[in-house]
Amino acid sequence: MASAQLWGGRFADGPSEAFQAFNDSLPFDHVLAEQDIQGSVAWADGLRQVGVITAQECQQLQQALTELWQELQQHPQQIAGAGDEDIHSFIERKLVERVGDLGKKLHTGRSRNDQVATDLRLWSRQQGQAVLKALTTLQGALTEFAAREIDTVLPGYTHLQRAQPVLFAHWALAYVEMLQRDHERLVDALERMNQSPLGCGALAGTAYPIDREQLAQQLGFHSACRNSLDAVSDRDFVLELLSTASLSMLHLSRLAEDLIFYNSGEAGFIELADDVTSGSSLMPQKKNPDALELVRGKSGRVTGALMAMTVTLKSLPLAYNKDLQEDKEGLFDALKHWRAALNISSQCLQGIRVNRERCRQAAQQGYANATELADYLVSKGVPFRQAHHQVGELVQLAIKQGKPLEQLSLSQMQQVTETIEEDVYPWLSLQSLLEKRQALGGTSPERVKEALKKHQQQQKIRVRDANLSDIDAIVGLVGHWAGAGENLPRAKDDIIHSINEFAVSEIDGNVMGCASLYIYTTGLAEIRSLGVNPQSKVKGQGRLLVEKLLRKARDLHLKRVIVLTRVPDFFEQQGFYHCSKDSLPEKVMKDCELCPRKANCDELAMEFRLL
């Protein structure tokens, strides 16, 4: 049986069995063992720095904690049934068994309130990174599917009725877009939660002069929480993770529903692999899409966790309340099933066999070219509303005769409108229907191939805001291109002071490109120091860096972004237009007047207008 409770001194009698069973959280919060030990190792060092324990005691505690974690990794089953109140009690008891009363010193100045808040953030950060990888993997599986089915035509649906044909690749890339938003939301949530509550005590802060910022850095947080009351009671990060998980599971449920329908006997567009399907205990012919049905079903489970946590937090007063113990089970369960759903969805996509001929036949049915016929009439000068009505009559005629529109004779069509001529038939072909969807975001083969190429590049390249750990890489890139005469040189100190202006591109964890957004006092902004490692084989980094800085400019409500360049074609592709250097007095005064090549400058000025 476990030792006495951590709080037992105030009580003459111990908890009843019923209360203990109701109160104890070890059966589920045991998953926080690693994070509790991480926090304890850091806290021991903090206590050493303020003289509560000696350097030797600190080393002894940290070594014992490290050995305890190694033991728990080998025998994890010992934790959940140990009988302790929670994981913090368990770790402390095991530590005392190893180092005696020294283990009891570790909790000096620390409360379980800031301890559990820290553990949960550390765990969430770790699990969030794992989910990000699963999201990226599924995006990759969808992109590979799109590349494989780049020429496959599929009927598009509205109201579950055949509407207009699309490329199967276009369908797959629609889900890549959804998952990208999920990825960005999760990155944002992880960034916001990356603050350390450790050292905030029960609610009012610790009485010891602990350097909380150093403690935060030691645990990998970017900063310490600024208010002790908020730090121990804040579970916004739990809600954000659950909200992001719920929305992502909604997307996965939609993906699953599409694939379930496409796999059905009624559609017959695809066949799922044996390893993600099951049979019937009664009907030997059945092949059921159980994996996808479970993805669809688990979306409700994850959304339920979000609703439960929202209601739990709704009326809680500051600061800590035991209600907050309910923050864990739903979160643990939701992130586990979210990650599992992402992984099984990737597996489902990899094994799909597409019946391309059946897809094409279905795309040609259901009068999917009716809109094209209306557009044909518009090209002949017929107002769209009138054309819409006339095509509706032609559809009725085709239905009565049991024919598709393109098989009606010219004389039959002219019974409805004499505007139609022999040149109508090329408009009604499947290829024509697709090729005409040339606008950005459309399903024309050209546009879909462009989108596919962009997604393939994005999955290799990570573009993010720069931080101080990127300084050496940025200095190297800027120095290389300055030496080549393409950029102005910048001192390392200048780059350090301007690090918040920079974005970097990353390939396999290595910085391969950089660019900065410099803002003049007039509000004009300039993209500067744009350069990619010439050894990098991955294309598209420059474009993604420019897109990143233009998004930043929009967020800052800037109106105009300029660039001086010798590669105008590149910036024209990004939407920049040529302008006169005379319209850039800020740039001329700041840099051009000091430039040694001022007299024979061969750079062109270009601008991007932000609405």
Describe the structure.
Helix 10 (212-218) links the parallel strand 3 (195-196) and strand 4 (223-224). The chain contains 25 helices and 13 strands. The longest helix has 37 residues, at 112-148. By secondary structure, the chain is of the alpha+beta class.
Give a short overview.
By secondary structure, the chain is of the alpha+beta class. It is built from 25 helices and 13 strands.
List the helices and strands and how they pair.
Layout: H1 17-23, H2 26-29, H3 33-49, H4 55-74, H5 77-80, H6 87-99, H7 102-105, H8 112-148, E1 153-158, E2 161-167, H9 168-192, E3 195-196, H10 212-218, E4 223-224, H11 228-233, H12 236-263, E5 270-271, H13 290-313, H14 327-350, E6 353-354, H15 356-364, H16 370-379, H17 384-401, H18 410-414, H19 430-435, H20 445-460, E7 462-465, H21 471-483, H22 492-497, E8 502-507, E9 510-519, E10 525-532, H23 541-555, E11 560-565, H24 568-573, E12 577-578, H25 585-590, E13 604-609
Parallel strand pairs: 3-4, 10-11
Antiparallel strand pairs: 1-2, 5-6, 7-8, 8-9, 9-10, 11-13, 12-13
Output the number of helix runs: 25
Q: What integer is the average pLDDT?
A: 92
Helix content: 40-55%
Oligomeric category: single chain
**N→C terminal distance:** 68 Å
Detail the poorly predicted runs: none
**Number of DSSP strand runs:** 13
Radius of gyration: 31 Å
Largest sheet, in brief, is: 7 strands, mixed
Secondary-structure-based class equals alpha+beta
User: Shape, please?
Assistant: globular
Give the DSSP E fraction (strand runs of 2 or more residues): 5-15%
Order of strands across the biggest sheet? 7-8-9-10-11-13-12
